[in-house]
Design brief:
The chain has 6 helices and 11 strands. By secondary structure, the chain is α/β, with parallel strands linked by helices. Strand 10 and strand 11 form a beta hairpin. The longest helix has 17 residues. The radius of gyration is 21 Å and the shape is globular.
Length: about 260
């Protein structure tokens, strides 16, 4: 600490002690902002992706480098009103099938309606098929993917590079991943990235094959990206920048509408 600041702090403490004030608001220069909290939810009831562990580790690292704290749970009991109010964002990291009961679903709906944010990664779209509200929130459900091999190189067309999650990308983005085909796509989402089905085999959505999107929904914010099947995804600089931009939008650090 510089000498001037040290003396100012000592003077502040001396005055507080001398006059016996129960509380005096400290000078602004000594106030440390409380970091925003982000919760990863990674419970699975169906297929479990090996990349969940790598993804959680990467998201925690991104948080440490960018001023927010990432915690993780696989306990549905943590999806309750008292706990959720501590978090600015909840990330469903490759969750699969039914991961919340009716009470927990209502708690999560109320969290979004109160201004909370949701981010889905990869198999978050393979989750809660019997919960229509969630289907609209996440923006679409998993339908199928290529097989033998299921991980393939494909070209992604950048539809919108004004969003924080895509501003670092060129017009096309070539990478390897497991590419989902989707059903029940929400027409109200704003598409950021689309798959070029001519660049790989196994696509079934045709010319309209979104792979990342966002929207304002029911009082909160929601973002989804289809990437993240492989461990290697979370080592890719461009994919990590994509995740960071998505998180910053969900945290309302950026105002893209």
């Amino acid at each position: 600490m510089k000498t001037g600041k040290a003396m100012s702090l000592l003077l502040f403490l001396a005055v507080t002690f001398t006059f016996g004030q129960s509380y005096i608001e400290p000078p602004e220069e000594f106030v440390t902002p409380i970091p925003e909290l982000v919760l990863i939810y990674s419970k699975t009831s169906g297929y479990r992706h090996q990349s969940i562990e790598k993804g959680a580790e990467t998201l925690k690292m991104i948080g440490r480098e960018n001023g927010f704290i990432v915690l993780r749970t696989e306990s549905p009991e943590d999806i309750n009103p008292q706990n959720l109010k501590n978090y600015k964002l909840v990330i469903f990291l490759s969750t699969t099938m039914d991961v919340l009961n009716n009470t927990q679903q209502r708690a999560f709906e109320n969290y979004i309606k109160s201004g909370g944010s949701f981010m889905g990664i990869h198999a978050a779209a393979d989750t809660e098929y019997e919960w229509p509200w969630y289907g609209k929130l996440v923006g679409g459900y998993f339908d199928s993917h290529p097989n033998d091999p299921n991980v393939r190189k494909a070209t992604i067309d950048v539809v919108d590079n004004t969003h924080a999650s895509t501003s670092h990308l060129s017009k096309t983005w070539v990478r390897n991943d497991e590419w989902y085909n989707y059903k029940n796509l929400n027409p109200d989402v704003k598409v950021l990235l689309k798959l070029d089905e001519s660049s790989y085999e196994g696509g079934t959505n045709g010319d309209n094959h979104p792979i990342a999107w966002y929207h304002e929904f029911d009082g909160g914010r929601a973002f989804y990206t289809g990437g993240g099947h492989t461990d290697a995804s979370f080592d890719e600089p461009e994919f990590k920048e994509h995740l960071l931009g998505a998180i910053e939008w969900c945290l309302k650090r950026t105002d893209t509408q």
